[in-house]
Sequence to fold (394 residues):
Amino acid sequence: MRKKVKNNVSWIGYIDWELQEFHGADYSVFNGSSQNAYLIEEEKTVLMDTIWKPHGEFFLNNLKQEIDLNDIDYIVIQHGEVDHSGALPLLMQEIPDTPIYCTENAVKSLKGQYHEDWNFNVVKTGDTLDVGNGKSLVFVEMRMLHWPDSMATYLTGDNILFSNDAFGQHFAVEELFNDLADPCLLEKEAMKYYANILNPFSALVSRKLNEIAALNLDIDIIAPSHGVIWRDNPVQIIEKYAAWADAYQEDQITIVYETMWEGTGTLANAIAGQINDLSPETRVKVFNIAKYDKNEIMTEVFKSKAIAVGSPTVLNDVMSSVSGWMTFLKSLKFKNKKAAAFGCYGWSGESVKILQEDLAKAGFDVVDASLRVNWNPTRDDLVQAREVAEALLA
Fold:
C-alpha cells in the first residue's frame, strides 16, 4: 500500500516492527524501523530506491498492485547498501532495461554485490533529470554519509529532498511523518543514529550541509531512507545535524566499566557520587558495558563532555568486553571530550595504563588523575575518586 507524501509523490516502503538489529548485530533496534522507497509519478514515473532483500517479494507485489512495472521510466538508487537496493534484482528481472541513475561508486557497489551489468547512468552533484510537468530531479553526492556511493536527490516544484541515510532514524512510525511521531522517541532515535553511524564523518557532514545551503534549495519535506519523513519544520533536523557535527556535548559525564568481583564497579559509583557532589547540575550516567547495550552507551558518550572508563586487570590486560567496546569507541572518532581511567587489580595492574593509552588513541583528552586500586577499594581509595571527578569537571 502506498502512502501519499505530497502531490504525485508516494511512500512505497516497508515498516519493520520486528527489526531488532542492523548492520549485522552492530546496531541495536528497540523501536522498529522502516525502509523507505518512494514513487514519483509525473510525466515520467520514477522509483526512488527499493527495500531490503528479506522483504523484496512484498515490495515487488505491492508495487505491482500500485502501477504497471513497465510504466517505470527511471530508477534512482541513492546508495548501494542492501537495505536500499536489496529488492533491485527482483525488480530488474521484470524490467531489465530500465535506466538506473546512481553515482559512479554506486555502480561499483551494485555490480560487486549483484554481478549484473544493468543500464547504469552515472550522475554527480548538480546533474538533473527532467521528470515532466516542469519538475526535475537534482542530484547531490553525499560521499561518506555514510558510504562513498551515497547521494541525495531533490525534486523541484514539490521541494522534496530525498536524503537517503542522512537525517534518518531506525524508528517505526506507521503514521509516517515527524509531526505524528512521539517527539521524545524521535529525538532519541535520531541522535542514536547520528552518534553510532554518522559521527565519524562529522567534518564531512558540516561541509555537506554548507554545500546544500549554497544550492539555495527551498525544502518543504525531507524524506530519508529510514524513519520519519520530516514535513513539519524540516529544517529542524538540518539544524540538529549542524549542532551534532560540531563536537557536540552537553553538561553530562558518562562512566562505563566492567567488573569481575565488584571492586571496579564500586570505583565507578564512587566517581559518580563525587561528580554529583562537586557539580549537582551535571548529569551523571553509569553503565556496565557487559550488561547494557553498546549503542545506547555510545549515544550517552556522544552527549557527554567527559567520560571515565574502568576495567580490572585480567591476564595483564583489560577485560575482553572492555577492549571490544574500546575498539568501537575509537571508530566513532569523538572530539573535544575529556577522559579518565580507573580499575582494580590483584597482581600486575596494567589495566589503567592500557585504558589511558587507548582513550588517547580514540581522540580523548586524557586527564592525569586516575584511580588504580590493589584488591578491593578502601575508604581512602574512594575519597581519591574525588580527584578524578575534579579533573573531569575542570
User: Anything to note?
Assistant: Residues 44 and 189 are 35 Å apart (CA to CA). The chain has a mean pLDDT of 96. The chain has two domains: 3-244, 253-393. The chain is about 35% helix and 25% strand.
